[in-house]
Amino acid sequence: MLQEFKDFIAKGNVMDLAVGIIIGAAFTAIVNSLVSDMINPVIGLVLGGVDFTNMYVVLSGTVPADAGLDVARASDAAIFAYGAFITACINFFIIAFVVFMLVKAVNRLKSIAEAPDEIAPEVKTGPSQLDVLLQIRDSLAKK
C-alpha cells in the first residue's frame, strides 16, 4: 500500500495540483493587496474619502464610535460588514478575470501546438528521396 501511495504522489497530476494550490495562495495575497491598497482607496476617494473596507452597520450591541472593523468584530456586537463583503466580491472578480485570461492563453498555446502547420508551413529544403530516385532512373534510362 505504501508503494501505491508513492506512485500516486509521483503522478504528474498530483504535483501539478500542489503547485497550483501554492501559486493560488500566493496570487490571492497579491490580489488582496491590490484590492485593499490600490482599488479601495480609489473607491474611497470617489465616495468622498470614506474608508471602504471599514464600512459596517451595527445590528445589535454597542461598538465604540468610529471604531474600525477589527474593533467591531472583537466586540460582542453583531455587525453587518458590507464593506468587507464588497471587498471580497472585488477580489473574486479580479481573480476570476485573471484565471479566465490564463485559461484563454493556455488554450491558445494548445491550439498552436496542435496545429503547427497552419502557423509555420513546412519549408522544402531540397528534393525528396523520391525525386532523387526518379532523377537517377531517368538519367539511367537515357544511357
Low-confidence parts lasting 5 or more residues at pLDDT below 50?
none
| Net shape | elongated
How confident overall, as mean pLDDT?
80
The CATH topology is: Non-ribosomal Peptide Synthetase Peptidyl Carrier Protein, Chain A
| Fraction of helical residues | over 70%
Structural Rg: 31 Å
CATH architecture: Orthogonal Bundle
Distance between the termini: 75 Å
The structural domain count equals 1
**Number of E-state strands:** 2
- Series of secondary-structure elements, N-terminal to C-terminal: HHEHEHHH
The side-by-side strand order for the widest beta sheet comes to 1-2
Largest sheet: 2 strands, antiparallel
Q: What's the number of helices?
A: 6
State the name of the first-level CATH class: Mainly Alpha
Structural class: mainly alpha
The CATH superfamily appears as Large-conductance mechanosensitive channel, MscL, domain 1
What share of residues are in beta strands? under 5%
